[in-house]
């Protein structure tokens, strides 16, 4: 017993001694960091980098812990982890060695591209897993678009060419799921068998399984199957979509880097059945395509799912369905082609069969909130039966009166969605009557009009107007209408206005129609009538409209007056837009701040229809507008003087939503302080608006000329000519924003002649006596905005050239192309411009001629700077250069040669170093040539010559990394010597503050060669 205790004490003592000797070294992360990284790299089969602390725990079991782990990969994969833990063998540790038995990664972030580089080989298990169990805790996996988060997985394998198996739990799109995955023979040349399954952990009876292969080209092919029990569907709240029981899905699937295709789909969703094909295109962008047939589907409920998908992935579908219900209306058959976009579901064509031998077609958009907007056609041989089938959607139509026979209706439908629905039918053209009817068929009558239906729980409000050319009514039809209108508690209320040029009852003779509409009285034109308004007033919100006048049957107007005034124009616009445009949606221009002001508008008109003289005035806040046109109502044209005044250009631009293009110095950079004034001869036709002989000012900007805007056919075209005394440009950022807005608009600009005596930006004059053209073309691939400069005086020289900005195409970013010539420009002024860009040019005098051709891709100047490519060449005369003095350099060389002792060389070195790094030299002429590629300027050749010598240079200027590297050679003229040495000078550092480092070796050698020895006679 005593001997055993002694042995145990010796063992404990040995452990303490070994721990004291090796423990500090092992826990020293800095001392053994490289060895630990090599061990982890050997285990992972990848380069492992540890940037966080490393610590060793000996109790209760030896463990090595490290944080901030990065595991490299060769093919674009990326793995990081919050921490790594290695269980160590105690025996090896006592001998001072590290040998791992188990590895755990906490919080790994694994990113794998899809398709996988190398296919199945990319996920082949590394050799270390053959003898080591791995555990992943709270990991995140990203394989292409697939995202798994909070993954807790155990990974097993039998070797590099055996089965790789992983199982555990994770979250997919926020839903907790159980995951299993098996990959067999991943290292071979043949496709590797793959099986996988996903099952939500909180939903019993739901499972998605896959069995197939993954080859080395990343083609995943196999069979997909899924099941969902009725209880699971009910728990998920999808019983209204998957009606009647459990759901099953079987399909063949093939996926690669281009697309995911499901063929042979056989889906059973309760009572609903679907079959067909689904393709998910991944390149060039995500797109889902359906080609399905089915029956007993509830697409009204499924639209919510479509809208959810449409917010992220476009979808296109071709459907052929039987026995479905859409919006509460049952269809015997329904065929549709549709696509989804961010705005909702766009139905390209829809054809449905209705009861009563009815049919409906639709093309338009279904919005995310259930809104409806599109064109439709409705035909029915028995109108009462067809409308009765729509009773669930519109109960008021269920008891449509007898006697109206057949009907056709086509137009635009606009529904605001919601329950109950709010429906507008606009631009209606149709017929009622004709066809077979059980109750005295009514002859066919054609009409146009609009209907607004606001369905309620008990009553439905309707605002409708139907205009008939000739209305033929039967007595049964009239009886049904009178009976519906005479009910004490009608289901339908609201203003319904019917007008007709003539009304015929049964088969009697035509009679003129006199139908009252509000305060107006419409009289049949055959009786010589017209519209007479003695005095009418209408309150629209807080605004008041007052009008009176007479419009005769021949179109002439007598003493017509109208006045509209109110405290807030925006509120009034919201009130009248439904009347003017048939929609509650207020356009963006009507929401601008300029309309949030008191307003007053008045119109007076008199004269024949072909020469109607009118006077119009409008006050909108401080803005005053006046016009006195002569209009031709028969052709829809008008022409006359127009004037506009506003006291502050800055305030008006802000009120028009242009605050982002104003300058930064109290808003006075652009367009400068001042008022707004416009005087012009304006005209308007059916497809053109214009102002001729206009004279206007906008702040500091003053201009005159003519402008026309052609409104049809698309695109809009702006053309004309402008002569400006002062043309003020906004800041570059705002100028680019305006250019982007123009490129995005369906607009064409043709302004071939714009002249300006002075072009200013901020408080600086950019050019004088400029003549240029501006054009915007809507090309087949992308629009392009071109500025063509004929001539302009810029920095003392004459500029000509062009700049073209092309909008983004399908696969290409915007591009900028610049080409131009600048002759006789002041070198000092060019140096000042370069200094603002952070580049020091040492010009002190002289002039330059420059030619450039540049291209760049991207949407901002910073991106252009990194993508800039092209060339810049130039020549100059009488150029003064700071930073070098060739006269002093030549003098120093001459004096050193003339000296007869060594001190001459020492003094020459001091003088040369000073002359080659300071001072000034004037050169008679110079030239240079550069090549620009991806923001890097390569100076191919640069040379300057003058009476004091010559200077040559070559090198690079990196605009992205702000580095300059030039190799210059100076050759001064030395009195009494025909040749002088080449003096190398290295110029480098920041382009804004470069430093020169002359090399004096060649000069010293030349001095030694030409200096006589002190002992020489």
UniProtKB/TrEMBL annotation:
Residues of the AsmA domain: 7-111
Keywords: Membrane, Transmembrane, Transmembrane helix
Record's keyword annotation contains Membrane: yes
Transmembrane segments: 7-27
Pfam short name (any one): AsmA
PANTHER family, per database record: DUF748 DOMAIN-CONTAINING PROTEIN, PROTEIN ASMA
Protein name as it appears in the record: AsmA family protein
Organism: Acidiphilium iwatense
């Amino acid at each position: 017993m005593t001997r055993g205790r002694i042995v145990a004490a010796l063992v404990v003592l040995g452990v303490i001694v070994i721990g004291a000797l090796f423990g500090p070294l092992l826990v020293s992360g800095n001392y053994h960091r490289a060895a630990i990284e090599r061990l982890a790299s050997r285990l992972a089969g990848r380069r492992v980098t540890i940037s966080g602390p490393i610590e060793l725990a000996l109790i209760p079991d030896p463990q090595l812990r490290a944080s901030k782990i990065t595991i490299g990969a060769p093919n674009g994969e990326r793995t990081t982890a919050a921490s790594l833990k290695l269980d160590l063998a105690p025996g090896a540790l006592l001998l001072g060695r590290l040998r791992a038995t188990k590895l755990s990664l906490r919080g790994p972030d694994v990113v794998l591209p899809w398709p996988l580089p190398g296919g199945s080989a990319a996920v082949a298990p590394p050799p270390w897993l053959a003898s080591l169990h791995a555990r992943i805790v709270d990991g995140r996996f990203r394989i292409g678009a697939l995202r798994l988060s909070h993954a807790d997985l155990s990974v097993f394998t039998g070797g590099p060419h055996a089965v790789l198996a992983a199982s555990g739990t994770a979250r997919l799109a926020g839903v907790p799921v159980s995951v299993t995955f098996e990959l067999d023979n991943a290292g071979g040349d043949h496709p590797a068998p793959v099986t996988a399954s996903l099952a939500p952990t909180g939903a019993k009876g739901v499972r998605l399984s896959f069995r197939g292969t993954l080859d080395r080209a990343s083609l995943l092919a196999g069979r997909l199957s899924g099941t969902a029990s009725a209880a699971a569907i009910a728990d998920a709240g999808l019983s209204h979509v998957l009606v009647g029981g459990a759901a099953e899905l079987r399909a063949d699937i093939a996926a690669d880097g281009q697309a995911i295709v499901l063929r042979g789909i056989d889906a059973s969703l309760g009572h609903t059945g679907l079959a067909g094909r689904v393709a998910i295109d991944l390149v060039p962008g995500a797109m889902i395509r359906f080609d399905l047939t089915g029956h007993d589907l509830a697409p009204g409920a499924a639209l919510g799912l479509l809208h959810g998908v449409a917010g992220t992935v476009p979808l296109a579908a071709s459907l052929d369905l039987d026995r479905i219900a859409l919006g509460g209306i049952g269809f015997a058959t329904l065929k549709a082609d549709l696509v989804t976009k961010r705005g909702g579901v766009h139905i390209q064509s829809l054809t449905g069969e209705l009861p009563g031998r009815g049919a409906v077609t639709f093309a338009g958009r279904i919005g995310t909130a259930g809104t409806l907007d599109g064109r439709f056609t409705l035909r029915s041989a028995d109108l009462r039966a067809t409308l009765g089938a729509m009773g669930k959607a519109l109960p008021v139509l269920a008891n449509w009166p007898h006697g109206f026979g057949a009907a056709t209706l086509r137009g635009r439908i606009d529904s605001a969605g919601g329950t109950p629905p709010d429906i507008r039918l606009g631009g209606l053209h149709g017929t009622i009557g004709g066809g077979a009817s059980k109750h005295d068929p009514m002859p066919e009558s054609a009409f146009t009009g609009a209907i607004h239906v606001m369905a309620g729980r008990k009553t439905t409000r309707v605002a409708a107007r139907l205009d008939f050319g000739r209305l033929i009514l039967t007595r049964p039809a009239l009886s049904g209408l009178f009976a519906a209108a005479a009910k004490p508690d009608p289901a339908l209320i609201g203003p319904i206005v019917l007008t007709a040029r003539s009304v015929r009852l049964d088969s009697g003779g035509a009679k003129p129609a006199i139908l009252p509409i509000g305060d107006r009285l419409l009289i049949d034109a055959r009786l010589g009538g017209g519209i007479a308004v003695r005095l009418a007033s209408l309150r629209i919100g807080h605004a008041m409209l007052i009008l009176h006048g007479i419009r005769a049957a021949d179109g002439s107007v007598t003493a017509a007056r109208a006045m509209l005034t109110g405290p807030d124009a925006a509120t009034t616009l919201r009130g009248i837009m439904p009347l003017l445009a048939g929609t509650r949606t207020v356009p963006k221009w009507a929401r601008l701040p300029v309309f949030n002001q008191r307003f007053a508008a008045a119109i007076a008109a008199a004269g024949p229809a072909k020469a109607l003289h009118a006077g119009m005035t409008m006050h909108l806040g401080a803005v005053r507008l006046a016009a006195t046109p002569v209009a031709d109502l028969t052709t829809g044209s008008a022409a006359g003087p127009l004037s506009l005044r506003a006291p502050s250009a800055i305030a008006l631009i802000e009120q028009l939503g242009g605050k982002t293009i104003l300058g930064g110095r109290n808003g006075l950079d652009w367009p400068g302080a001042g008022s707004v004034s416009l005087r012009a001869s304006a005209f308007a036709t059916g497809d053109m608006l214009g102002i001729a002989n206009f004279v206007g000012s906008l702040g500091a900007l003053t201009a005159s000329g003519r402008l026309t805007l052609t409104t049809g056919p698309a695109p809009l075209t702006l053309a004309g000519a402008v002569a400006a005394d002062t043309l003020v440009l906004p800041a570059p950022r705002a100028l680019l924003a305006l250019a982007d807005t123009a490129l995005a608009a369906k607009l064409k600009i043709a302004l071939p002649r714009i002249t300006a005596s002075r072009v200013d930006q901020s408080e600086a004059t950019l050019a004088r006596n400029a003549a240029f053209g501006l054009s915007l073309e809507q090309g087949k691939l992308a629009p392009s905005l071109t500025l063509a400069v004929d001539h302009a005086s810029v920095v003392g020289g004459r500029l000509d050239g062009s700049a073209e900005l092309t909008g983004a195409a399908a696969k290409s970013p915007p591009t900028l192309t610049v080409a131009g010539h600048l002759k006789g420009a002041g070198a000092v002024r060019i140096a000042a411009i370069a200094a603002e860009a952070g580049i020091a040019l040492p010009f002190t005098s002289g002039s330059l001629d420059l030619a450039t051709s540049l291209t760049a891709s991207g949407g901002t100047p910073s991106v252009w700077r990194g993508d800039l490519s092209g060339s810049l060449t130039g020549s100059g005369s009488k150029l003064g250069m700071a930073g070098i003095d060739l006269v002093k350099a030549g003098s120093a060389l001459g004096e050193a040669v003339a000296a007869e002792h060594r001190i001459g060389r020492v003094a020459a070195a001091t003088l040369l170093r000073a002359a080659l790094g300071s001072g000034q030299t004037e050169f008679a002429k110079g030239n240079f040539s550069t090549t620009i590629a991806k923001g890097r300027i390569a100076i191919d050749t640069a040379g300057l010559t003058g009476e004091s010598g010559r200077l040559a240079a070559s090198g690079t200027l990196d605009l992205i990394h702000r580095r300059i590297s030039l190799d210059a050679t100076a050759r001064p003229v030395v009195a009494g010597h025909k040749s002088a040495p080449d003096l190398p000078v290295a110029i480098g550092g920041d382009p804004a503050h470069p430093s020169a480092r002359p090399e004096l070796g060649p000069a010293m050698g030349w001095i030694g060669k030409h200096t006589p020895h002190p002992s020489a006679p």
